[in-house]
Amino acid sequence: MKLRTAVLTSAVAMAAIAGPAFAQSQGDWTVGVGVGYLDPKSDNGTVAGAELSVDSDTRPIFTAEYFVRDNLGIELLAATPFDHDLSLSGVGKIGSTKHLPPTLSLNYHFPTQSKFTPYVGAGLNYTVFFDESSPLGDLKIDNSWGVSLQAGVDYQITDAGAMRLNVRWFDIDSDVRLDGAKVGEAEIDPWLVGLTYVHRF
Prior knowledge:
The chain has one helix spanning 2-16; strands at residues 29-39, 45-47, 50-54, 57-69, 72-79, 82-88, 92-100, 103-109, 116-133, 139-141, 144-156, 161-170, 173-178, 181-187, 191-200. By secondary structure, the chain is mainly β. Residues 11-22 have low confidence and may be disordered.
């Protein structure tokens, strides 16, 4: 929570000093490579009558964005698989899972005349769970569709390159099954804090 608050505060502060107007042009492409810290919310639902806890993870992330209008881009987020331990209150660790979070977003980049370019975005996330394991039996977590929201800021370091700091929120709610029977629902709803190098073509 402290990390998310610090990142959001920094993004708002940088946006405030950005000043008026640097445009992203229609037809531009950007590709980003960076690292993302995925932090599920603290209350992750109930499984088999006990509170579920899903731990955090850090992995490489990738983005590609095409500007359909000046300052308006369609972005695809990808990542290497995030790996999470699953725990139940009073029991401890009961298994693990991996997931991929491909997300398609529509982003608006505020025009400025400085090196700082803040932006906001909203989109659709499809979360794919796989490699579940548990000593309790055959553990499965259903894939999930949900909305995603984000805000961030780019800091231009070259004519074509920028460093991006952003925060995303994902709505991820998935049924949890053990040996084929539903035993609860995972309410993950994580925040993703990203630091990325973005190159414009």
